[in-house]
Amino acid sequence: MLNFLRYVLATILGLFIFFFLGLLIMVGVIAASASKGDITVAENSVLELKLDKAIVEREQENPFGDLSFGFFSMSSGDGLDQIKASIRRAKTDDNVKGIFLNMRFVDAGMGKLEEIRDELIDFKESGKFIVSYGDMTNEKAYYLSSVADKIYLNPLGTLEFNGISSEVFFFKGTLEKLDIKPEIFKVGDFKSAVEPFFLDKMSEANREQMTSFLNSINDYQLRKIAEARGKTYEELKKVSDEVLVREAADAKTHGLATDIGYYDEAIDYMKEQLGVEKDKKLQLVSLAKYKKVKDAEKSGSAKNRIAVIYAEGDIVDGEGDDDQIGSTRYAEAIRNARMDKNVKAVVLRINSPGGSALASDVMWREIQETRKVKPVIASMSDVAASGGYYMAMGCDTIVAHPNTITGSIGVFGIVPNFEGFFKNKLGITVDRVSTGNHSDLPTVTRAMTPFEKEIVQREINKIYEVFTQKAADGRGMSQDELKKFASGRVWSGIEAKERNLVDVHGGLEKAIEIAAARVGIEDDYRIKELPRRKNFFEEMLGEAGSQVKERAVKAELGQLYPVYNMYKKVENMQGIQTRMPYELIIQ
Average pLDDT, stretch 345-349? Predict the structure, then answer.
């Protein structure tokens, strides 16, 4: 009887899964078919940019994107590639007369902000307008809004304009409470990635570097805002330092906003610009819809390709996930670009704080082999530090934004000792049998001997020497000279260029332009994006469970999610690391 019930339940479950998957595929096909249809944009339309999702380098196609079912909302965010392409398309679209920046909080790194802002500035050259409206606007959102012709701020709204900051979490007290003793191995006074495990506050060296590059980025952005708003740097620095914008009216008084008004007043202004009567609806087209507008036919020879290899996330050994830079997958992508006769040059787009030293070196090798037959240009996004810099340093030219975070040329390793935690907190003891005095090295269940510590530190020192020598060779300087800028110190793009760690300031388009010029195909090429991304169904069927779990954890932990995320990153670390501080969040 029990076996019969098992078979019945198994059959019912199988039918349910079959029905669910069938429905899923059917809806997906319908959604995908609909998305392939031509999207029409009405005359006198305005492109509305809310940018209320996290902005990633590349956007994954999602046929369920327009559906309201929460289960299907698996997109990791808006793609920078699609945002820029939409602004560029709107510039020449006769039906789009302007852009409406309807933003509150923008979740993007400084490099991505710079590229979007540059596209908005270029859009204005068409003679079309940009209008911004905000009720609660953070510094990042305002950095974009500052280029607008009209900036509306809600009468009871707030504008954050008090400089940028970054917080670092320290876990020394937690580890002590848990009786966990980390053994720290590093090279360089500035290798602050390990500080959270043995300090309860920043070292003076770390405070020095963070103060330096944050001020560099802040000063750069203040100057850009001052230029856009017709103010001086000194005026805006005073406004920021003294927090003179405390109410909406203050923003207008100090020239940061043009109008204090409500959402409908911003809409009425745009209607007036377009000759639309007040009682008529303004045609706002969302970014989600406008991304689907069919582009003009691609020009350029299909036999002239520039491969853009997007490398975003932590650097790990092996294949890695879609949000990681797996050395095996990316080495293969670089190799494929090298072997493809139609690919004339390679642009390596890097957005990474680093990770595995071994994985970084594996990819560095493929870059060197590729350089022998075709140019390789590095394009740094928000961050290309430590292992991220390791990838870039061997390229022919390094392009970075003035506010890119880079450098962090240093190495570290952590071997935690859980012996006290297991014994004193969990009542677990460990015994062992070994064929030699150090057969269990490395181990996390006992303290390391001085001899064993020396072995690990020597390995750290060796990798640091390799790292700095290869960086020096790539940058055309002596190792001793490069070491002056190494020791794990982090630099802004401005500081890095002054120290010959990068060559040119600019974004992805600048890097592609340099690559095309190197091989003489300035106006006759197409872009090939690598590595191939999983399509929506591959992603959903392969990782739907993990994404559902991730969303649930995020919802449950709320503001504590970043701490959990840091723990997951530490859990994934294997071997010696070339990595900058874990979570450098600038706000």
Answer: 98
